[in-house]
Amino acid sequence: MTRRTAPRAALLAVGELLAWWAGLVVLWLMLISTVCTLEWVVGAAAAAVGALAARATSE
Fold first, then answer.
1. Whole-angstrom Cα distance, residue 19 to residue 24?
2. Which end of the chain is more exposed for a tag (fewer CB within 10 A), N or C?
3. How many CB atoms lie within 10 A of CB 30?
């Protein structure tokens, strides 16, 4: 990987992680019936783990 493509690849990886995270958070919010702060935190954390797993398996 050259110096020019390394930042672009990193940006694409971050973008993919954010897309997975956003999609999983939306899914979490659709599946729960009530929304309180703790559920938002748990959902965001679970979505982060899921996004990392999706990114790790896609390589």
1. 9
2. C
3. 7
What is the distance between the alpha carbons of residues 34 and 39, in angstroms, rounded to a whole number? 8
SS3 state at 2: coil
Q: Which two tokens stand for residue 12?
A: 């694409």
**Tokens 């999609």 belong to residue:** 23
Q: How many CB atoms lie within 10 A of CB 51?
A: 20
pTM (predicted TM-score): 0.76
For residue 53, how many other CB atoms are within 10 A of its CB? 11
Eight-state DSSP code of residue 3: T
- Tell me how far apart the alpha carbons of residues 49 and 24 are, in angstroms, rounded to a whole number: 10
Mean pLDDT of 6-24: 90
Total residue count of the chain as it appears in this document: 59
